[in-house]
């Protein structure tokens, strides 16, 4: 990799395509790219080379794209580690001479891929967030895992944390929709990787790519990508995942309130309608911490108005059968206690004596 030299050493903003060594396939391409290829970079590390379509290569703003790689390197060590964990952020711009060909990003963890039968299988089928909206009957029929509501919220909480983290550091996701994030879930904890991060937009300054997103995820106003559009799209991710319908056009408050508190539901519904509730950010920041804790190895839980931690059970499942309390233990007898049989005998004798006296 080549680039300007800074205090920390070489600044790898650019790499020539001819210096990349292909090592295998990756996930299917789409959107901005014609091909995704695993390769070894000049530094010896493994990357994914995202090759842009001719239209994207023609329109991309090279200075803005290079600024994204510089921004990552200018972060402190802790922030850079968090960015690398949560985002497939562009590491370098790939050139052919002076012409942009694409970007290098890090590969997603193997646990975020499955094969056609739903089993973990690196570099096969990416597990996108739209798997969260798959109804249980369809998932079982296809052989895939089904994700119950507490797991859906735990996964989305990881994406939410990344979204808020980027907002605090001057970036919006922009094209926020299910196909732009991968996730893994091991039965206890979830992890999420935001992909297509070269489409993220600075909150001040010029983005690298023209604004575009799928029709079903467009905000209903002409405002450029930013915090408001991210919040709108995230609210719809929650609603459509819980309603198990990626084409839903209206949030279902009853479905939402079954697994969350009313105020959380109200905020999400308002965001879906394009509103900007004043407490949306602090409330969602709290949920980004709480929702993952409701998934445990032993049970799944939800927060509702009635309980901050109620055990979740599927809709229509019978309530748990209450266990009958054990019978009380017999009282211990003391040495001076009069046996019950003796008392009954004495009472009978008294009655017989009274009868004899009356007859006499």
UniProtKB/TrEMBL annotation:
Record field: compositional bias (Pro residues): 316-330
Annotated TM spans: 338-359
Alphabetical keyword list: Membrane, Transmembrane, Transmembrane helix
Region (Disordered): 312-334
Database matches in InterPro entries: Kinase-like_dom_sf (IPR011009)
UniProt superkingdom: Bacteria
Entry protein name: Protein kinase domain-containing protein
Species, as recorded: Actinomadura chokoriensis
Lineage of origin: Bacteria, Bacillati, Actinomycetota, Actinomycetes, Streptosporangiales
